[in-house]
Specification:
With 469 residues, the protein is an all-alpha fold. It has a single domain, classed as MFS general substrate transporter like domains (Growth Hormone, Chain: A, Up-down Bundle). Helices cover 79% and strands 0% of the residues. It contains 20 helices and no strands. It is globular and about 55 Å long. It starts with a helix and ends with a helix. It is found in: Cell membrane. Keywords: Cell membrane, Membrane, Transmembrane, Transmembrane helix, Transport.
């Protein structure tokens, strides 16, 4: 009998190692990329919208309004995911995305369009923090370590859609007009709902509490944060014409008031104490914000220059920037392998070097640059996207507490959108009106300076990690 038992043990099929469901990961990635899609398609629709509504600089709020909404909405959605369940938040985000997208094309004025764009930002921004909370929940349930593959999938989806969005948007705008960049969300949102209902695990029961939903959210803190970002944007945009220095004083007072309020808040919108205690996490947020200033300067500034100074139409602009998507995919795959071998600091180092090269190349472009040169520059600009994104995401995952996964990932997105808002102002300052060669050269210089700062930080982090070993 012992021999039979021994033979049975030897012949029993090996148990398969636990892993995250592919359907789960792909569903989360599908929902998360809707934000990137809606951010990127606007890059080639701005000119048409400005002409239809006969608007000037006010159209920049189509960019700033969305990122201001997402800067506030992402951590709020993360808090809601932590409190009430990430699946509910994920599905709600898709529903709001569909509703805002159906209403936007019927806007009677630019103001209404900006308002619907804000609602769209709130809807699309919630999927990422809810998705990360789902990944963390399932990984902990299965006893899995850092889901590097899942994070790579999110990074690949986001970077490809951000870079490929102008291609999609260029075709939509060229043949169906700017409303098409909103209406395309209708079928995509419905597909996302079906996938979520099939693949996302049901939310666990939450402990009953007499505290109201509003009591669990720091709405005052969120409002103060929005005011801080809005006033900063207004001040930066005023620098291109007549500086309004009094706005800077208002910004300082609002920032101080925001920090003081958050220190006393029971459930703060931004836990200032955690940021002070967890310096590596704070460093990741600051590094991410700075990275995305450079990224969005390229993301919106480069297509605007291609259309206005180089004279390409929206569809052609989309094709010229397509290599950004292709090299982003390749770089994320390479970054994932480097990450598994050496950690996130070498990944961030490589991303900083590539960004520096891309910034320097932008300073050499002019209206007569050959298309092949433009395509090659676009290819170089895609490389740092994958490395920086997955490097910062991995640093965040390891530095944030498991209980705060949702709010931490929401603040990560917020840091990206703070960078986007600053980038919008930088573009206005550098172009000072219509996109031109000197303006592009100034943008390239800004990107090069930012990448140099990031490079120094990555070298310091790498050296510090070796010392601790």
């Amino acid at each position: 009998m012992t021999a039979d038992l021994s033979r049975a043990q030897h012949t029993a099929p090996p148990q398969r190692a636990a892993r995250l469901s592919r359907g789960l990961v792909l569903t989360i990635a599908f929902g998360a990329v809707l934000q990137a899609l809606n951010a990127s398609t606007m890059a080639v629709a701005m000119v048409d919208i400005r002409e239809q509504f006969q608007a000037g600089a006010a159209t920049s709020w189509l960019i700033s309004g969305l990122y201001l909404a997402t800067a506030v909405g992402s951590p709020t959605a993360g808090r809601l995911a932590d409190l009430f369940g990430p699946r509910r938040v994920f599905l709600s985000s898709l529903a709001l995305t569909v509703l805002a997208s159906v209403a936007a094309p019927f806007s009677p004025s630019l103001g209404w369009l900006i308002a619907f764009r804000v609602l769209l930002g709130i809807g699309t921004c919630a999927a990422y923090p809810a998705g990360v909370a789902l990944l963390r929940q399932e990984a902990d349930r299965l006893g899995l370590p850092l889901p590097a593959g899942a994070l790579s999938a999110l990074a690949i989806g986001g970077q490809v859609m951000i870079a490929g969005g102008p291609v999609i948007g260029g075709v939509l705008v060229q043949y169906w007009g700017w409303p098409a960049i909103f209406l395309v969300n209708l079928p995509l949102g419905l597909v996302g709902v079906v996938l979520a209902l099939v693949w996302l695990p049901r939310d666990r029961r939450r402990a009953p509490s007499g505290e109201s939903v509003l009591g669990r959210l720091d709405l005052v803190g969120a409002g103060l944060f929005a005011a801080v970002i809005a006033v900063l944007m207004l001040f930066l945009l005023s620098l291109s014409e007549q500086p309004r220095w009094w706005l800077l004083a208002v910004w300082v007072l609002l920032t101080a008031g925001f920090a003081a309020y958050e220190l006393r808040a029971r459930r703060p919108f931004v836990d200032v104490r955690v940021l002070v205690r967890n310096r590596p996490l704070t460093g990741t947020y600051l590094r991410t914000a700075l990275t995305y200033v450079a990224f969005y300067v390229v993301f919106y500034g480069f297509p605007m220059w291609l259309e206005s100074a180089r004279g390409l139409d929206p569809a052609q602009v989309g094709l010229v920037v397509l290599p950004i998507a292709l090299t982003a995919m390749v770089s994320v795959a390479g970054a994932g392998r480097l990450l598994r071998r050496m950690g996130h600091w070498p990944v961030l180092l490589a991303g900083s070097v590539a960004l520096l090269v891309g910034g320097l190349l932008l300073t050499g472009l002019h209206a007569g640059s050959a298309v092949v040169v433009l395509v090659l520059v676009a290819a170089v600009l895609g490389i740092p996207n994958g490395f920086n994104n997955i490097g910062n995401q991995t640093a965040l995952y390891g530095q944030a507490d498991a209980a705060d996964a949702g709010i931490a990932s929401g603040l990560y997105r917020t840091s990206q959108y703070v960078g986007a808002n600053i980038a919008a102002a930088v573009i206005e300052l550098c172009f000072a009106g219509t996109a031109s060669d000197p303006g592009m050269h100034r943008l390239g210089t800004v990107v090069a300076v930012i990448s140099a700062v990031l490079l120094v930080g990555a070298l310091a982090g790498l050296a510090g990690g070796r010392v601790r070993r």
